[in-house]
Amino acid sequence: MNARGYSVNHPSVQERIEKKRQAALTGGGQLRIAAQHKRGKLTARERLELLLDPDSFVEYDMFVEHRCSDFGMEADHNKYPGDSVVTGQGRINGRLVYVFSQDFTVFGGSLSGAHAQKICKIMDQAMMVGAPVIGLNDSGGARIQEGVESLAGYADIFLRNVMSSGVVPQISLIMGPCAGGAVYSPALTDFTFMVKDTSYLFITGPDVVKSVTNEDVSQEELGGAKTHTTVSGVAHRAFENDVDALLNLRDFFNFLPLSNKDPAPVTECHDPRDRLVPGLDTVVPFESTKAYDMLDIVHGIVDEREFFEIMPNYAKNIVVGFARMNGRTVGIVGNQPKVASGCLDINSSVKGARFVRFCDAFNIPIITFVDVPGFLPGTAQEYGGIIRHGAKLLYAFAEATVPKITVITRKAYGGAYDVMSSKHLRGDVNYAWPSAEVAVMGAKGAVQIIFRGKENQAEAEAEYVEKFANPFPAAVRGFVDDIIQPSTTRKRICRDLEVLASKKQTNPWKKHANIPL
Amino acid sequence: HIRVTLCRHVHVKMADEAVCVGPAPTSKSYLNMDAIMNAVKQTGAQAVHPGYGFLSENKEFAKRLAAEGVTFIGPDTHAIQAMGDKIESKLIAKAAKVNTIPGFDGVVKDAEEAVKIAGEIGYPVMIKASAGGGGKGMRISWNDEETREGFRFSSQEAASSFGDDRLLIEKFIDNPRHIEIQVLADKHGNALWLNERECSIQRRNQKVVEEAPSTFLDPDTRRAMGEQAVSLAKAVKYSSAGTVEFLVDSQKNFYFLEMNTRLQVEHPITECITGLDLVHQMIRIAKGYKLQQKQSDIPINGWAIESRVYAEDPYKSFGLPSIGRLSQYQEPLNLPNVRVDSGIQEGSDISIYYDPMISKLVTYGKTREEALKKMEEALDNYVIRGVTHNIPLLREIIVHPRFVSGDISTKFLPEVYPDGFKGHMLTAGERRELLATAAALYVAAQLRSQKFLGDLRVSIVPAESRQWELCVELDKGVHMLGVSRAGNNYTVEIDGEKVEVSGEWNLASALLPITINGKHRNLQCLLRTAAGEITLQYLGTSFKLRVLSKLAAYLSKHMPEKIPEDTSSILRSPMPGSVVAVSVKPGDNVAEGQEICVIEAMKMQNSMTAAKTAKVKSVHCKAGDTVGEGDLLVELE
Hints:
The structure holds two protein chains of two kinds. The model of chain A has no long low-confidence stretch (mean pLDDT 93). Chain A is of the alpha/beta class. In chain A, the strands form three sheets. In chain A, strands 11, 12, 13, 14, 15, 16, 17 and 18 form an eight-stranded mixed beta sheet that branches. In chain A, strands 1-2-3-4-5-7-9 form a seven-stranded mixed beta sheet, sandwiched between helices. Chain A has a two-stranded parallel sheet with strand order 6-8. Chain A is built from 19 helices and 18 strands. By secondary structure, chain B is an alpha+beta fold. Chain B is 26% helix and 32% strand. In chain B, the strands form nine sheets. In chain B, strands 11-10-7-8-9-12-19-17 form an eight-stranded antiparallel beta sheet, sandwiched between helices. An eight-stranded antiparallel β-barrel of chain B has the order 22-23-24-25-26-27-28-29. In chain B, strands 3-6-4-5 form a four-stranded antiparallel beta sheet, covered by helices on one side. In chain B, a hairpin with an 8-residue loop joins β4 (125-129) and β5 (138-141). Chain B is globular, with a radius of gyration of 27 Å. Chains A and B meet through α3, α10, β10 and α11 of A and β21 and α16 of B.
């Protein structure tokens, strides 16, 4: 007891703390939790428990409450300790991560000023500490009762998303609705994952769409996981359910460095670095018109055939994703001959460019497998702006200063050859397989131009093939560093990555570059 | 000639000189005599070994070689012709006092004549291609209806496989054993029998597991069969290696089936027990040398087993062809007394153009028991990824009590697995072993995922634990497991029982050699995902497990069930192949079991039938289409 007659240890305060804590832990209450479960969704806290290592979660702002006093919101029964989001930091496989998890059981997870403030707090700290931010989105949208304060909250988050971009990795996992202005936070983060059947991302829902454009469309068709992972390219991967998504997210997190100050992580590796891959000697078919699966090459070369593919169902003519080489995270980019002959088009260029820029921002070496017949011709592509979109991929490879290793497995034709991490764009090590053909175009087309109107085109074609349909023209000029036996590719790349680990390269000072968006 | 740098196939790599005889379809390459004759001329070859299959029993080919003065390493054209024709061969066998099966020796004109003849012989009857072999173009019929259908199928298959649609019909010996005698004869009238091979384990009349010698033959029967085989060989002035196939009934009565005038697929087991190199002998004989051995020189040394490893799904009618790229492939050649004859390697494609055989896996031992043990070990250490294979079935056959005791017949598979092959049935103890291994593997992987190397700016706080509570699912059974660890040794507690599992836990290796409760086991990890799915190959069969932390398992209860698609109204191709015929069109009413279309794969015609009585909604294939496994063929309403 002090002079004024109360104690900091006064039982009633202790009780109040305990009561608030308990209230915070139950969110919107048992009924709403049951409703959440019934929808096949976990609660905000269950999700964090599963995402983070056991007992590692350190919660912030459990006592924060919303400050709205309109529309009866000031009533006690409308106050929930912690409001509609759970925030804090924790560990994934021992590594630090900042997290927020929106609580749909409290006002449908709607974003109040307080909710935004909580998210901003952990984002600010993540930036200072240098650790990634993972957001688990499950929110009906703005807290309408709060009006502009809610909008301000979104903007505060957007600003932080932008400031954090390229500083710490940011990952969004959409686990429920995410509509209206809210969608721009995930859009600004590095990776957006979705849960199938229970998550939606759209600017406006089906009702508004109907009233504005008279289109009939379901939630799922408009903004479900399938739409965004196959048609729009907004989301990078979709998972079966909450549990599947969170366990995969833990796995994915291990590929990422904590910040742009950290090198690509290296984990213990059981796969011999000098392992020969005999299957690669036969993977490229004799006939240059025949397709094969670039994933066969990727799986064969990387550690333990483990490849975390990004956007596996979107713009499938390019393959991008993370893997490890001798334990070290690498970004893989490869043309996919199986789909549209592996040509570059608008969507694949944009997909590739964003991935390459992520890798470059976070010190992840890039390994590029090239089998590209060129850019896709046609009005659809030209009208859609293939020139400026294609330029993005070129730009991304050119500006990247991380170790860049390129393997030309077969075709490297025309401008697309230049684009695909060529020697000319500062490729560190550029290899060609014996099946490589580096040329301006295929033999038939070339001969038709060079020998227009002349006879014996077949003979000319044979001469062209002899001259250009092989790795020598590039190799004699030093545009490829070596012609290697495919089965030795893994061994070579592992060795190169060891050497390039200390690579230092900087671009000229600039406020920021001006990528052709 | 093929440039050495382009040699990608094992058989080409092994050759000193190689000539490409054409594209993948066999009619344009290995069956294209012009192409092969050109290769002979181009290389100046003095002799041709025709292998097995393709042109090995083609008398026209042998004649063309003879016309060019090139030696055919095999018997004379006369013998090929006489024995290649099932009707003629039976007449010759009868004349040579070889026991034969009662039946109709002649060409059957049409389905109705087939029914009439079948009635005279008495059901069951066997309808087979006169020119055939290897089970192709063969159908067993138990009634008139089946006879008509069998006649149609067999003549089509015979036409497509051999270009000769003649058929014959004979009494079908129920429950027989298939035992064959290897003979070797030179051009000087000498002939030997090199003992028998038991090839009773068959599916759809194609051999799966063979052994030499047979557990069933006593020395007298063996000698009687051997002598008849030799007398047949002599009757047709046979030279080279050949095989006389017999059906043997439960009373050890044996009947001549046919003579194969070539090297047999299963010849390695004869080589193992006799010490003779049959191909070497064939070359010597072709050159005109005399046999060096006498009958008394031919031993039976030990026991040899051959498993035919096929790219087939054994869960569908004991083996429907599968195709794909061998993403990983490792033969168990590190083991002693193991021989693997194969023509493929890691990265090879198993295509629709050839027989889906991956290899012949042969093990040898002083006793049958030793050879069988070795086979178990070899199958467990055989790494095949990328195609579905029949190792689960092979592994089950060789440990089945009936097989182990030698109580087998050509009906073995349908008798032992009347409802189809379902994989290994785990005992309670085996189930515990499997669960414990999955749990230990899960923990080993979890621990490794916390191991980051190098200098770290932000230190790691590992969730260090020595105890794990896990929930493991296997075939809808859910088990709570407690795992504790000391180094590489894990103690797993399952339903009050403790299982000790230890191993190297190399998570990159295809093989997972571990010790479970002191017993050495070779498992293979086929799949391990972030979401806890683990597929283990254990005792040959692959088992799908899911390992989750107690928390994840608890929370999984809230996850919605996803409804799988209704498959009864959708007909998908069970294998890759080409569509031979489509018997329905949209709007047709079909009855359950009615033929919808016919898919030909690896030269076998497979009738696809309706799973229910319904109206045809849509047809997605037409005759001549190439279809992949799982491709939609027809949709019913």
